[in-house]
Prior knowledge:
The protein has 76 residues and is an all-alpha fold. It has helices at residues 13-25, 30-42, 45-58.
Amino acid sequence: MAKTPRTVVEIRDDLHSQVKRLALLNDLRIHELTNVIIADFLQDAERVKTTIKKLHSTALFPGLLNGFAREDTTGC
């Protein structure tokens, strides 16, 4: 099997527990299930746009998107 590049992603403990439980119940590896979940989500462009808008509007991750997806207007 050819090696593919990998990226480590930090996720919340509750999400990890859910994915781990689903993987075990369905005889899958965590990375297999996670890849399918992400790929399925990314195929719905409208859902991705809506999620990004939610991140911007609710400031779940303040400062994370500044300078990347929108212009920082704070003057700092």
